[in-house]
Structure formats: C-alpha cells, structure tokens
Design goal:
- The chain has about 325 residues and is an alpha/beta fold.
- The chain folds into 2 domains: about 80 residues, Winged helix-like DNA-binding domain superfamily/Winged helix DNA-binding domain (Arc Repressor Mutant, subunit A), CATH 1.10.10; about 240 residues, Rossmann fold (3-Layer(aba) Sandwich).
- The chain has 15 helices and 10 strands.
- The strands form 2 sheets. A 7-stranded mixed beta sheet has the order 6-5-4-7-8-10-9, sandwiched between helices. Strands 1-3-2 form a 3-stranded antiparallel beta sheet.
- The termini are far apart.
Length: about 325
C-alpha cells in the first residue's frame, strides 16, 4: 500500500515546498492556525497537510495541532545549502511524471513516452521553457551535491592539468573539484541553457579564475585541451550508440596520460543486491523520459570498448553515495 500511495506522498512533499511549510515553521513549535495564517491557507486543511507530513516523518506533532520540523523535513527548506526542494519540485512536476502514465507502452515498444506526450524530446522541451530548465538545473545540482563533495577525496585529480566537465550543468561537480585542487584548470561544457546558472556556482566556490565555460553539443564535439574528461550523470541519459559516440569524441581528445572518468550509478548483475530499488526506478525513468538507461559493470565495459577506450577500472564511492567512478584510457 505504501508503494501504491507513493505518488500521493510525492505530491504532499511538493505542496509543502510550494507553500514553504518548513520555512514558515522554522526552528520553533507552530500551531496549524499560525502556519495557515503565514501561508495564506485554510486552518483545517493546513492541519490535515501538516499531519500528513508528520506521518511521512518530515514534521513532528508535539502537541495537539502543534508541530516542529523533523530532521528529514529540513531538506525541504530552500534556504539551506543541503536543500532538496528543487529536486522534489522537479520530480513531482507533470513534465517529469506524465510520461510515467505510459510506462507499459514504453516497455512494449522500447521507445520513450515523453516525446509522444509533449511533442518533443525531453531536453528540447526544457530548452523551450526557461523556467523549467532553471528548476531542472537546480534539481540536478541538489542531486549532485553530495557526490560532488565526496568525489575529490576519492579520486586523484591532481594527476591532471585540465578537467573538461562534459554535460556538467551548473558546474556543481566541477566547482567542488577545482576548490579541492587549486592547481587544476576546469572547462565546463554544456548547452547554453544547461549551464545558465554556472557563473554563480563558480563565484560562490571562488574558482571563477580557473573555470572556463564553453557552450556546445557533445554529440558533435568536445573541447580540446583536457587530459581528464569527466561525465557525471550524462551517460545514463542516452542509448548505447549515442553514448559510444560521446565517449569516442572524448577518447579522441585524450593525450597519452589522459583519462575519461564516468560517474554513474551501477546496476548489480542481479536484482536484489541493492536495497530500495531506486536504481531500477531511475532506470525506468530514463526509459520513459529520455531514452537512456542505467547500466551494469559489464555494460559499461562494452560501452568503453565501443568508444575506443580501455577496459575501465570501476570503483564505487563509499556508502551512502550511490555512484561509481568508471575510469578508462584511450586504447593503444
């Protein structure tokens, strides 16, 4: 029953983000009447929403009709550096969820459903909607923040002089790497829409002088001059042929000591070896919305070979991080 009601739980979180429930409650105990007054909502229905949020573990009802924010609920506060508010908003928005209504069709045909629902591909649709694109970029940044913080301590970026972050979005990952490695130069490569918020990211990290932004299309080319080509949460967006093409363009740019570093979740060879099933839900999300997929270690090896790269060295980041580092060199 919890699984069946999952969509409703997501929409409850979305309403809390939209109404700024957590921000209104703040660090004090607040009654439903007080929250309703500050949110401009009805007291009775506000109480019902607050109790639902308490039932989900995001608030605590400390007295009849009085609430405080539980630790998990703090992640809904947009003012916090660790907020997941934009990610919640994005993954509960119709542009992300409507294609899921046609999951069975995608399973039958092997095709994305997003294009049929919206009349254009996922990223084309985002490019036409700057408001959606900005919120999606913020969601991707929030989803990448923990990995970005962990990555510099688990991979030796100091071996390289220039890292090209291919499809790097707002630069969250690249900024964390540059901050940890002061001698490193970085190139952020994405569409203009994809990296629209990058300047602010680099400024906050105080790495603007070492972070170059280049707009382009990784299906056509990648910038020269890098000795490390980084792809975080890019490969899972595309099919094998498209991925091999992206990686091949990176391989062609590598110097002898250069590397390609892919950061993605790993599907285990057999279901049941990871808890919660989130990786498999992400895999289906790739199917219905963008036409990509999550992959097993063997499937990443096959991709690297198709792209002219060596057999990759695969290292998983420590828990609770869900990503692996997949490193490969150019063949020959």
């Amino acid at each position: 029953m919890q699984l069946v009601f999952g969509t409703m739980a997501a929409q409850t979180l979305r309403a809390a983000v939209e109404l700024k429930i957590v921000e209104v409650i703040g660090e004090e105990e607040r009654t439903a009447e007080e929250v309703a007054r500050d949110c401009g909502t009805q007291p009775v229905t506000t109480l019902r929403l607050l109790r639902a949020l308490a039932g989900l573990g995001l608030l605590s009802e400390t007295g009849t009709g009085a609430f405080t924010v539980a630790p998990a609920g703090l992640l809904l506060d947009e003012r916090r550096s660790d907020s997941l508010a934009s990610l919640i908003w994005t993954f509960s928005d119709p542009f992300m969820t409507r294609a899921w209504e046609h999951l069975a069709d995608s399973v039958r045909t092997g095709q994305t459903s997003f294009d049929k629902v919206f009349g254009a591909g996922f990223f084309t649709h985002l490019g036409r909607r700057p408001d959606l694109s900005a919120r999606f970029n913020a969601a991707m940044s929030q989803g990448s923040r923990a990995t970005a913080d962990a990555l510099p301590a688990h991979y030796d970026f100091g071996r390289f002089s220039t890292v090209v972050d291919v499809g790097g979005g707002d630069g969250t990952v690249l900024a964390a790497i540059l901050k940890a490695y002061p001698a490193l130069h970085g190139v952020l490569y994405d569409t203009a829409e994809g990296m629209a918020q990058a300047a602010g990211t680099f400024e906050r990290a105080a790495v603007t002088d070492r972070a170059e932004q280049v707009a382009g299309d990784f299906f056509v080319s990648v910038p020269p001059g890098g000795d490390l080509y980084l792809l975080k949460s890019v490969i899972h967006d595309w099919n094998d042929e498209q991925c091999a093409g992206i990686l091949r363009r990176c391989a062609e740019r590598l110097p002898a000591h250069g590397r390609v570093l892919i950061i993605e979740p790993l599907l285990p060879p057999q279901a049941g070896q990871v808890k919660g099933g989130l990786a498999y839900l992400s895999d289906l999300n790739m199917l219905v919305n963008v036409g990509g997929r999550e992959r097993t270690p063997e499937e990443f090896e096959n991709l690297c070979h198709l792209a002219g790269l060596s057999t990759p060295v695969i290292t998983t980041l420590p828990q609770p991080h869900a990503f692996a580092m997949i490193e490969a060199a150019a063949k020959g």
